[in-house]
Specification:
Among the domains are: 1-101, Serine Threonine Protein Phosphatase 5, Tetratricopeptide repeat (Alpha Horseshoe); 245-350, Orthogonal Bundle (Cyclin A, domain 1), CATH 1.10.472. 63% of the residues lie in helices and 3% in strands. The protein has helices at 18-31, 35-48, 53-65, 69-82, 87-100, 104-116, 122-138, 154-165, 170-183, 189-197, 203-215, 245-258, 263-280, 290-304, 311-318, 322-334, 336-343; strands at residues 222-226, 229-233. The chain is elongated, with a radius of gyration of 28 Å. It comes from Shouchella clausii.
C-alpha cells in the first residue's frame, strides 16, 4: 500500500510547520520534474492535513506531471465538491483535464451550469468561454444550432463565440467564425472586423471574415495589411473572391489552354489560383496581366505534377511577356507552402 492512499494518522504528534515544509519540498521536487517524489511528499502532507488546499492541489499537479490525468481529474472533482482551494482556479484545471481526456460533453454540461448561475469572475470569463466553445465544437451531441440564440441563451452564446473568435487555438477560431456566419450573429460584427484586420491571423481566415462583412453589408472602412501591401476598403463595396474581372480572366485563359488538352492539370492550376486569391484577397494580382498569371499557375501546377514544360513555348501560347510570368511565378512560389496546405484543407469553401 503506497502513501497515495490516505488514512487518518493514529497517535501522531505533528511538529509545527511540518505540513508547510512537506508542501515546500513537494514543490521543489515538481520544479525538478520529479513527479513521483513530489507525489509522495504532497500525499504525506494531505494525510496530516486533509483540508490543506496546497497539499491537495500539489497531489493534482504531481499526477499531471506523471501523465496520470484520469486520477488527477478525480482529485480536482473532489476539490470542487468539497469546496477546498480557489474554486475557479481548480475548475480551470479540472476542465482542462477533461479536455485532455476528450470528455467534451462533460465540459459543455459543467460550464453551461456554471455560466447559467452568473457567478463567473471577469478574469476567468474568457478562458472558460473559449474552453466551452472548443468543447462544443468537438462534441458530437452538443453542436451549435439556432436555439442557442433564443432569449435564454443568447448572451452566453455570443460571449462564447466572441471568446472563440479571439482564441489562440486555430480550429476553435475557425469554428467560431463559421458558426457566427451560420447563425448570422451580427452582434459580433466588431469582433469579425478585428479578425479581418488582424495581421497575426491566418490569411484565409481573414478573407473569410472579410467576405462575411461583405455579406453583412458593412460599409465602415477597414485597413487590411497582408505581406508588404496595405489598403483601406469598405467590405460592402468589394467583389467577392473569384468574381473580380481579373479572377474570371485568369480562369478563362487557363480553360482555353487546358480544358481539352489536360483536365487534370487544369483542375490543379485552378485550385492553385483559387487558393492563392483567397490568401491574397482583397489585393489584386500584380502585375495586372491575367494571361501572365494563368501561364504562371499552369507552370507551377505542371511542376507539382512532375510534368515537363517548355517555358518559352508556354509564354508564346498565352501571348504574354516572360518577365510578367516570372514575377507572377515568383509570388506564387513564395506562397507555395501556404497554398499547398490550404488546398488540402477539407473546408469546401476553399475549393473550386
Amino acid at each position: 500500500m503506497t502513501n497515495e492512499h490516505h488514512h487518518e494518522p493514529q497517535n501522531i504528534i505533528l511538529f509545527p510547520g511540518v505540513v508547510k515544509r512537506l508542501v515546500e519540498e513537494g514543490m521543489d521536487e515538481l520544479k525538478r520534474k520529479n513527479g513521483q517524489k513530489a507525489l509522495q511528499l504532497f500525499s504525506q502532507a494531505e494525510t496530516y492535513e486533509p483540508t490543506s488546499a496546497q497539499a491537495r492541489f500539489g497531489v493534482v499537479l504531481s499526477l499531471i506531471e506523471l501523465n496520470r490525468q484520469e486520477e488527477a481529474v478525480e482529485k480536482t472533482k473532489a476539490l470542487l465538491h468539497e469546496g477546498i482551494g480557489d474554486y475557479y482556479e481548480t475548475l480551470q484545471v479540472h476542465v482542462s483535464l477533461l479536455v485532455q481526456l476528450s470528455r467534451y460533453e462533460e465540459v459543455v454540461h459543467l460550464l453551461e451550469t456554471v455560466l447559467s448561475e452568473n457567478r463567473l469572475p471577469s478574469e476567468h470569463a474568457e478562458t472558460f468561454y473559449e474552453l466551452l466553445h472548443f468543447s462544443r465544437q468537438m462534441s458530437s451531441s452538443q453542436a451549435y444550432d439556432a436555439s442557442l440564440l433564443d432569449e435564454e441563451h443568447k448572451k452566453e452564446t455570443e460571449l462564447e463565440l466572441r471568446a472563440g473568435l479571439h482564441a489562440t487555438n486555430e480550429p476553435a477560431k475557425w469554428k467560431a467564425l463559421q458558426t457566427v456566419k451560420q447563425l448570422n450573429v451580427k452582434a459580433l460584427l466588431k469582433d469579425v472586423r478585428e479578425l479581418a484586420a488582424d495581421e497575426n491571423a491566418k490569411a484565409l481566415m481573414r478573407t473569410y471574415a472579410l467576405v462575411l462583412l461583405h455579406d453583412w453589408n458593412d460599409r465602415m472602412p477597414i485597413v487590411i495589411k497582408k505581406e508588404e501591401r496595405s489598403m483601406e476598403v469598405q467590405p460592402a463595396e468589394l467583389s467577392i473572391p473569384g468574381e473580380r474581372d481579373i479572377d474570371k480572366a485568369i480562369r478563362q485563359a487557363l480553360e482555353e489552354q487546358l480544358e481539352q488538352e489536360d483536365p487534370v492539370l487544369l483542375q490543379m492550376a485552378r485550385q492553385l489560383h483559387h487558393t492563392y486569391l483567397l490568401i491574397t484577397y482583397p489585393f489584386l494580382p500584380d502585375p495586372p496581366n491575367p494571361k501572365a498569371w494563368a501561364c504562371a499557375f499552369h507552370l507551377v501546377a505542371a511542376e507539382q505534377l512532375g510534368l515537363e514544360t517548355d517555358e518559352e513555348d508556354m509564354v508564346d501560347c498565352y501571348g504574354c511577356k516572360r518577365f510578367d510570368v516570372l514575377c507572377a511565378s515568383n509570388e506564387i512560389e513564395a506562397l507555395e507552402k501556404d497554398i499547398l496546405l490550404e488546398s488540402q484543407d477539407q473546408n469546401q469553401w476553399f475549393h473550386t
